[in-house]
Amino acid sequence: PRTVPPPVSMAQAEPAPASHRQGRIQLFQSNLFVLAVLLVGFAAIIWWVTTQLSQVSIDNLAGTEEGLGGAEGNGGPSPIPSPTFRATSPPEEVVGAPQTMDRVLLVLSIEQQSWVRVEVDGETAFEGLAEVGNVLQYEGRDSVRVLAGNGAGLNVTYNGQPLGPLGKRGEVVERLYTTGGQITPTYTPTVTPTSTDVPTPTPSHTPAPPNATR
Question: Residue 105 and residue 158: Cα distance in Å, rounded?
Fold first, then answer.
């Protein structure tokens, strides 16, 4: 007689859906791994391309600078410099210039012994030997004239402006200081006629010849 297999119960058929679900999870995990690998590879490709482009840009820039330098060395056109503008300062005032005054103020500091004559407005105010350390001060309406036998012995201050020594050592110097400035007088030599003695002829005595003997 044939034996009939027992019927499969529902309890034994339930494990099939669980194995199917596990297969889906494994497939999803494998797909996720592949996606991660693809993302990492894509990022690596982007980084490599960016590095190459930056390297190419640096090389091109260096080549351009070398080309410009070679063109200048070979007489090629050189870049035109852009114009530069400098700020101009206002002109400075001259400090220490003699003041323009309606009178003459003169100070003579004696540094070396010297004979000095000073005339204020045409009148003699001092004449004599000035000693070292003396300070002579004069004020004139129109002029002050100074004559010194040793120019290096006098330091002059004219209307508040130091002018330094009047001249050189042992030099005879004359200066005229007025309200308009200082003047160096010029001398016109005068010719003094000299008498020339004309020799007077001296008469010579010629002796008479002796009488002839007869």
Answer: 6
* H and E: helices and strands count for the chain: 2, 9
**Spatial distance between the Cα atoms of 42 and 45, rounded to a whole number of angstroms:** 5
Q: For the chain, how many residues are written?
A: 214
Q: Does position 35 have pLDDT exceeding 50, yes or no? A: yes
Where does the chain have alpha helices with state H? 10-13, 15-73
Q: pLDDT tens, 40-92?
A: 888 889 888 888 887 766 666 666 556 555 545 555 555 565 555 455 554 44
d(CA 135, CA 148): 14
Span 143-159, pLDDT tens digits? 999 999 999 999 999 99
**Do 145 and 121 form a contact (C-beta atoms < 8 A)?**
no
Distance from C-alpha of 102 to C-alpha of 143, rounded to nearest angstrom = 11
CA separation for the pair 69, 71 (Å, rounded): 5
Which residues, 6 or more positions from 198, have their beta carbon under 8 angstroms from its beta carbon?
A: none
Instruction: Answer yes or no: pTM beyond 0.70.
Output: no
Q: Compute the distance between CA of residue 157 and CA of residue 145 in angstroms, rounded to an integer.
A: 13
